[in-house]
Amino acid sequence: MKEHLRFSVLGPVRAWRGTAEIELGPPQQRAVLAVLLLAEGSQVLASGLVDAVWGTSAPASALGILRTYVHGLRKALEPAGDTAASVIRSTGDGYQLRLTEGELDLTVFRELLARAERARRAGDGKAVVEHLRDALGLWRGTALAGVRGEYAQTQRQRLGELRLSAEAARVTAELDLGAHTEAAAELTGLIAEHPFDERFRELLMLALYRSGRQAAALATYREAQTLLMGELGVDPGPALQAMYQRVLRADAGLLAQPAPGEPAPVPAQPSAPAPVSVQAPTVPAQLPAGLAVFVGREAELAEVDRLVPGSTVVVSAIAGMAGVGKTTFAVHWARQVADRFPDGQLYLNLRGFDPVGQPCPPDHALRTLLESLGVDVHGLPQDVHALAARYRTLLSGKRVLLLLDNARDSAQVRPLLPGAPGCLVIVTSRDRLAGLVAVDGATPLRLDMLSVPEARALLAQRLGQRRVAAEPDAVEEIIARCARLPLALSVTAARVATQSALSLAAVAEELRDGAAGLDPFHGLDAAADVRAVFFWSYRALTPDAARLFRLLAVHPGPDLTLPAAASLAGLTVPQTRQLVRELLQAHLLDESVPGRYASHDLLRAYATELTESLDPPQQVRAARHRVFDHYLHTAHAALALTSPSQVLISLVPATEGTRAEEFAGDTGKAAAWFAAEQEVLLAAVEQAATHRYDVHTWQLVWAITDHLHWRGLWQEQEALDLIAMDAALRLGDRSAQAHVHRGLVAATTDLGRCEEGRVHAERAIELFTELGDMEACAESYRYLCYVAGRQGDLEGALDATQRSLALHRAVDGHGGDDSRRRTATAAVLNSAGWFHTLLGQHQQALDHCRKALALQQELGDDAGAAATWDSIGLALHHLGRYDEAVTSFRNALAFYRRTDHSPWATADTLGRLGDTHLSAGRPDAARAAWTKALAFWDRLGHDDAEPLRARLRRLDEESDAGAPDTETADS
Q1: What is the mean pLDDT of the chain?
Q2: Residue 742 is inside which H or E element, if any?
Q3: CB 514 within 8 A of CB 544
Q4: What strand order describes the sheet that includes 312-317?
Q5: Is the pLDDT of residue 518 over 70?
Q6: pLDDT digits over 201-259, tens only?
């Protein structure tokens, strides 16, 4: 009888045959086993094993050595076996270690966590504690102990964070059972081991408070506050602050026992480590809402349910077929398995067959996915291969579900595939994606029209079983007229459900009559002609709702809000809300996410036909003008809030009936609007240019350029600027041309073409000077300063800031928006101070920065003040006034916390704070600040992480040797 194998990674990497431990060979051979075990039954490419074991130091003979290690492991694990039957299988260009239930401690650990989570939801607190204790009892020290290398260290951190999360969940469950005193004692030890982990301090405060020790609970908070401020210059996080406030006011809710199912969720899978006192990014949960009624597809669901994580699944219909329910099926399946992917569920519409827009380019899709995963998109590489590498690195070791909807072809999808097992990718497309199946190992699934029983069940779910059973012949005809397509059946059922007196026989007759004389959709088989269904439902709309449905074809897409729909129709928002409800009820419009509405491609194509045949051209032009006005005026208002120092252009008043959105001075709301409307705005620019709305074209581009810049979408920014330049040249508008040149400065410079950026800046300055627009000219000098700084031309950058400052002072008091002008002046003063410091002129830097700070404090410009305090700190550092520099950096951090700042700005300041601590002879404080900065860079996936990690390693080495590296901090 074959002896049972067992493996352990929650401690040293070990293996047993029965009760006898197996000698696994040299360290690198153990590392190969560790990588195969962490794949948990999935294939690992040979190249991936080489990267994991050797990193960037792989020898030329690495693949040969790898084969030797695999051979050694096979002999060790199954000395009497043969290669073909080995537990380690060769699979294509990789290897797979086949595991059965209970063989790997990590898998058992996960299963126990899952049981604890199920018990938590059932309200069984004792079972939660029992399962978590059993899970934590599997650990035998540090995960992967003895395995060297960066890959192993990353996995150690990931698994270690999972262990801490399980500890926190266990203590939480014990507190819920009333074990307050015991928990307090245990938490004290956990805090000593992990002083910067605020979760344990929060739980200790709760335990002490429930034990009647309010003063001790408050003292715990003050200890945390002192530690974090002294070591990192930051305050405790929001959760710990909230607990402090609740304890301080003796919140009775802290004593209440939670209702069943309410204890803190149990971690189900490893996730990215949450750095000390850095709030972990929100786990994305982007799947669209599933249908309340989903019928049929049992065979297909059974087929996909057999697939394991790590697969790539193509959900595809007959070539060219639309409306068959690919997205509905994919969302339904994804929601069924979502809990297996605790690191996130991502959804992205690739718009492969969008009737009005272009397919989403792979680089754009990668940026969107990276941002959803918490990466700061500013500064990401522009090359699609570099983006894909960053994306694959981020997903390595994670369990993420990715739903890619409406793909055009395999080439669009391939860069979006993860590079390591553990993730599930679901792709829907009208194309069969044969290349993805053949080359990338995707598992194809072909969705056909519903069977007749499934179609009948769908109607029964929507209309009621009794009504369907009463008229079987009519039901059969309705199903045939709807071509067994879920979309057509749903549209029909939506209308019938609201008219209980309407017989199904009458419905069938109307569909039969409506089909007469209607040409089938282009590209669809005649048997799948569903236009008669759409016409039948459209005909039942009120005139205003029918008009709005037709005008949806004019909107640039892919979706719209209620105010945008109101602008399109030229009606008030309350009037439009009623019409949208009517379209939703008729299933001619869907609410894709709360407050955003979209229609199926087939419905949009039908609306296009209707508006071309029924609506007078002048009315279509008027609707198009209103919708362009809507986005232009709303974007202008949003820019005024998000870029408080930018010179604003004047707009022609919006046409009557335009309903621009309002932000009530809320900068966060304005930034969120830009993010939500990004795809619509890009499409609006292209449509405005196509229809020769040239003023709207260049002004829309002007309004969204800053948003694109800060999101790192520089290629898109340049493409739009070039469209805007064509429009400005057609108009012969030199002011428009100057503004576009100014926009091209940032795009070309960020793309690495600095000389080109300088030419655009100088041309903008020349044009604005000729036009006498000194304020815009001053702004253009700021852009010239940006280019010079990127080129390393410090004197040129300082000269540009001084020219900008002189122009701002010249126009001061000559009308216009004085607060915006003064905000811009303060920003220029800070820039001048920064470049004075870089040139070694530190006292002049302080003089400029203090003037900037006075203006910013007077204006309440917290974001500007944060940047200026950072500049002051750098100048003081170089003057050797380290304590004052530390205070300045802490002031900068405090102002950053008040604003919706970019986290990379905080990381930059923390890095400089660490430099100053090190120069002042405080290596421990430097290490704390750099560790905090590194947590930010890691969370953002930023290139600055590795250099800082190297500095921390050197600091540790030098501290061990008793010789702190003061030169590093000053370099």
Answers
A1: 82
A2: helix 734-750
A3: no
A4: 345-349, 401-407, 424-429, 312-317, 443-447
A5: no
A6: 889 888 888 887 888 888 888 888 888 777 776 678 777 887 887 887 777 667 644 33
Residues 921 and 940: their CA atoms lie apart, in Å, by 30
Read off the pLDDT of residues 135-145 as tens digits, 9 standing for 90 and up: 999 998 888 88
> CA 460, CA 473: separation in Å to the nearest integer?
14
Amino acid (one-letter) located at 55? G
Residues present in the chain in total: 971
Q: What is the DSSP letter of 603?
A: H
Instruction: Copy the structure tokens of residue 967.
Output: 């030169």
* 224-257 exposure pattern, b = at least 16 Cβ within 10 A, e = fewer: bbebbeebbbbbbbeebbebbebbeeeeeebeee
- Smallest Cα–Cα separation from 772: which of 811, 813, 744? 811
> Helices (DSSP H) in 314-464: which residue ranges?
326-337, 362-372, 384-395, 410-413, 434-440, 452-463
C-alpha 888/C-alpha 456 separation (Å) is 71
> Which neighbouring-strand residues pair with 44?
95
The Cα 629–Cα 879 span in angstroms is 53
- DSSP per-residue codes, 65-105: HHHHHHHHHHHHH-TT--GGG-SEEEETTEEEE---TTSBH
3-state secondary structure of 328: helix
pTM: 0.62
916 touches 873 (CB < 8 A): yes
Bridge partners, 90 (sequence order): 95
Beta bridge partners of 5: 17
Q: Which of 334, 350, 360 is nearest to 423 (CA)?
A: 334
Alpha carbon 187 to its chain centroid, in Å, reads 34
CA proximity to 861, closest of 903, 824, 904: 824
Name which of 242-256, 301-315, 461-475, 908-922 the model is least confident about.
301-315
pLDDT of amino acid 272: 30
- What pLDDT score was predicted for residue 279? 44
